[in-house]
Amino acid sequence: MQQIIISGFGGQGILSMGRLLATGGLHEGHNVSWLPSYGPEMRGGTANCHVIISNEEIGSPIISCPNALIVMNQPSLDKFENMVEENGIIIMDSALVPIKPKRKDVRSFSLPATEKAYEMGHPAFAGVILLGKFIAETGIISPQSFEEALRTVLSPSKHTLIPDEMKALEFGMSY
Amino acid sequence: MGKRILMKGNEVIAEAALRAGCRHFFGYPITPQTEISHYMAKKMEEIGGVFLQAESEVAAINMVYGAASAGVRVMTSSSSPGISLKQEGISYSACAELPMVIVDIVRCGPGLGGILPAQCDYFQVVKGGGHGDYNLIVLAPASVQELYELTVEAFNLADRYRNPVVILGDGYLGQMMEAVEFRDEEPIEKANKDWATTGHGGKRTHNVTTSIYIDPNVLEAHNRKLQEKYRVIKEKETRAEVFNCDGADVVVVAYGTVARVVKNVIKDAEKKGIKVGLIRPITLWPFPTEVFDKYATVPKGFLTVEMSAGQMVEDVRLALNGRNRVEFHGRMGGNVPTQKDILEIVCQMADGQ
Hints:
The complex is a heterodimer. Chain A has a single domain (2-174), classed as Pyruvate-ferredoxin Oxidoreductase, domain 3 (3-Layer(aba) Sandwich), CATH 3.40.920.10. Helix content of chain A is 37%, strand content 21%. Chain A contains 6 helices and 6 strands; from the N terminus they run E-H-E-E-E-H-E-E-H-H-H-H. Chain A has a 6-stranded mixed β-sheet, sandwiched between helices. In chain A, helix 2 (74-80) links the parallel strand 4 and strand 5. Chain B folds into 2 domains: 4-236, Thiamin diphosphate (ThDP)-binding fold, Pyr/PP domains (Rossmann fold, 3-Layer(aba) Sandwich), CATH 3.40.50; 241-350, Rossmann fold, CATH 3.40.50. Chain B has helices spanning 9-19, 34-47, 57-69, 80-95, 122-126, 144-161, 171-175, 216-236, 256-271, 289-295, 312-320, 339-350, and strands at residues 4-8, 24-27, 50-53, 74-78, 100-108, 114-117, 137-139, 164-170, 177-181, 240-243, 250-253, 276-281, 283-285, 302-306, 326-330. In chain B, strands 2, 3, 4, 5, 6, 7, 8 and 13 form an 8-stranded mixed β-sheet that branches. Chain B has a 5-stranded mixed β-sheet with strand order 10-12-11-14-15, with helices on both faces. In chain B, helix 4 links the parallel strand 4 and strand 5. Classes of the chains: A alpha/beta, B alpha/beta.
């Protein structure tokens, strides 16, 4: 069972990243849940979502002990770092999370996602790059299922971006 | 059954209503249930139904009264303070025996409160927030799939008993996404609505839906008829999920999202050698009292967990009627009881504390 918390600023596509993972998991035949933060703190503040991908029935959709944390700002790392399970993984954007995790009992990865996304001409791809690293480390969904998820989640007018999104994913996977 | 698709709880409620034949929706937006209105606004136009955003909750519930009187399947949805505003119309509808489905995606209160999940509307919805001796059928789903199935069922129950039915959920259920699998065809029960005010061109005496009875004996007789109906509903429509209760040391009682947290606690407790059962009422009214008889003597007692200061726990105590201890753990203000806290209490109880 993968229990993932994704967190960052509102507007970075945090909730969509979660939807992509959940949709990919569903495509692979897993049970999935996606729980967004929907409180007033979202307006211009932090946004996060809890995603569970499991072969068993999903009990609580609320994650108290994530085995993966993907963060796109410093406050999110500060808030969730201590919750991560021992031997869990933390994936972060190096430009947005300058102060690294204090925990030594987790595996952490810092990727120049925003930098690479700008280079690709699509700043919004930063999240996909981080998801690439997550997929490579956990193997929970295949790149094919991720591509399927892009097709499901993105509006048809954005489907032309999918080949580039997959390049971003591959960058993250092989980083 | 079709393909499993990922959908938001609120949208599933709206889709389920449409599948159940609801073509009339009257509402007023309020977080955390506004997606129901969004979905209805978009879809009703496509299928030739009526979506109307009323000027207020009071107007919306009275439009529902009108549509239900005309015999059509109708729904409204709101959230705690909005449901408070609808109470007068709900009481009138219960008295006039009008089938309708009302959704309450509860926010934390009292007052304007906050938009985070809560279960503090139990008293208001289950015990009748409006005036008079009446009951609503109250369904409490715990997953997105169940939101779908129980919403379809709500329309059948409303028609079968000529009674308002409430779907009571918390903000997490409304906002979360899970897989849902829709049936190819819905089990829609056709009800005889010869009481409906459908127009008759002078061919019969006219039908009236009313809640005014000036003659005390006539009103008492109507009340007795309602009470008899409620008795039948209690007998036939009580539902609960009973999980892991046989041989349990402690039984936890919880509904909605909290019941799912408890399912995690059950696994944690098992690792510590403690067997925890769960009774999850699916109908909050009628409350599944009989289920408690079988487990009344569970060795270490009952624990009720709610996102409230303790509301359903009163019904648990009534159901057990002094036969066992009933402890309570609740969080308020939009906080959800944590797995860790519930586990700690369960362990203490199992330890004889």
